[in-house]
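Hi U.,

Before I forget, here's the chain from the pilot set. I'm dumping it here mostly so it's searchable later in email.
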Amino acid sequence: MQHDLPPTGMNSSDLARDLTEEGFLILPELVSRQKIDDLLSDLAPSFAETPLCQGDFYGPLTQRFGGLLARSPHAADFVMHPIILQLCRNILGPFCDTIQLNLTQGLAIYPGAPRQFPHRDQDMWRGEVGRIEYLINVMWPFTNYTADNGATLLWPDSHAPSGLDRSPDGEPVIAEMNPGSALVFLGSTLHGAGANRSQDVRRGMIVSYCLGWLKPYENQWLTYPPATARAFSPELAGLVGYQQHRPNLGNVEGRCPSLLLGDRMLVPIGAIDALRPDQVAAVADFAKSQS
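Structure:
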């Protein structure tokens, strides 16, 4: 589904409803072409130096590289786009305390690349499927995405809950779009890169967000160690993992890992509860009963 509205006219609740119903949507003109050009300029060395992938899933005529927040300061504008973040929180928020960054990935599909194996990204985790969404993907094109150069293919009605129990019928939708737009799709939506039958390289970026209690696809803490994450805003640092997920997940010495971004040395400092409100009440009631 395409929303032919300017970003200022997009309502996050309406977008979340449409994304839940359709499994994917294209949001036009979310960022300027200048932002795309600035980011692409920073990533040019990575596109020039990264070897082609190995394996039939990634594709032997495809480039992929991660850690984009460390490769370009302009990547943060995409990762932290307010419309995208609110959309992710609307859909993922009911199932977690905080969302987290799952990956940032630059990719290029070269002429002659075949279609990618159709897949659902949520299958990287072995949890129950059909009742909740585990992640949301955002594809940002750096070049025009067309039917000829391998634009992403998506199968309508293939997402949770009803679409997971049957093979999709009909042809996939071809996500043709221009730089500045964004394709947003659920982790339960069947999709795959199209074949590049053109003479041009199709370049773009994937940014995805997942439930905060999952192990992310990209190891954020190694990709962005404290020395790197100290340059991030507190909100961005939290998104890449420098925050606790209640109850007490992802802590360092029983405290929020954002401590690693300060000047204080990591020494034993004493753990502090980080619980959900319902857990705080239950634990407090129990503690009173023991006095």
